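Morning run. Coffee first, then this:
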Amino acid sequence: MKLKRVCALGAAFLLLPVCAMPAFAAEEIVVNEDISVSGDYDWTRFANDNITLNVYNWGLYISDGSDDSVDVVSAFEELTGIKVNYTTFDSNESLYAKMKSGGASYDVIFPSDYMVGKLIQEGMLAPLDYDNIPNISAIGEEYLGWDFDPDNAYSVPYMWGTTGLIYNTTMVDEAPTSWSALWDVQYAGNVLMFNNSRDAYAIAAKRAGLSLNPSSVEEVDQVMKDLQDQKSIVQAYVMDEIFDKMEGGEAAMAPYYAGDALTMIEDNPDLAFVHPEEGVNFFVDSMCIPATSKNKEAAEMFINYMCETSVGYANCDYIGYSTPITAVWELLDDDLKYSPIAYPGEDVMSKAEVFVTLPDDVNAEMDSQWSQMKSYDESGGSWMVVIFLLGAVALSGFNIWRKLRKKMRDNY
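And here it is:
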């Protein structure tokens, strides 16, 4: 994620004349030239406890110090004396599988809305103590109180966004307006698709005029047939691999998240983004603490830190996703603040749907149908590889035979 803005928040504060400084500024703690935090919070109470927090986030979803961005994790370690072991996942389903297996222990995780609901239902999250997270007050009210966690007892919003279509203007004659473009045979072999069941299902469902939240097993089966029919069009099922493929001009179009689309467009100006007319997914990614965390208070400190204005600004500015922190939005450059990609208007949002936590039987059917489709696809793909290789060997052998024959004729 490489969106770069004119100045870092900390530098902006330092440039303000003394008379213009807000009343609370004197109480702030300056960690470095980019990060300043609230001075009325005890950030060092675990400094001598040799704590390491295991943080599990989406890939490319934090300002990490690359490409001249602010390293917010290092700043947290410097501020608190707490070490952070930061690792990444590529889908909610990967996150869930890792947690369910018990193979790793995490202190802070970043699931999306419906996955938060599922983790709550299964008793996998710890209730939050907001005495340790006073910065919850920085979150805009419109991003609180969702059905998956109506009292925000287990989750604090981190970022939000929408899905849409990113496409290469040099490979697509007209800007697509519908999800149906992903089924268009003229783009066979040039279409990428989400490599997770929930996002892929949502696209096929919206294309068919259905809700992206299936109400029955039968509805899942119906929509999954459409994804089966699409397979001959799809070049690859991807998550983070989309960056290299779309930025490198290896595919004509793909569905993906709006925040990531901004990054790809900046790196390749031939790319553009649309919200299809049938409607899109509106998602909220949150910060949560697993019930198995051994460092709950320190984890709550990390969440509180991530809601600091300077930290939220650094993250939002770098990754391009949409912020739920009111003060951060006000600081953004106008090109991002009023971007129809990052902050779409009512025409898009009125048709957007939020994922809900599905009934167990519906969720199991979706997982099963998705696995069957992917397995069948990989099997078919393997046979195609064999056929192509055999064809290549035969053609090579024919060319060698033809050259030898010509040489013998010439010698004769």
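The longest helix spans residues 360-411. Good start to the day.
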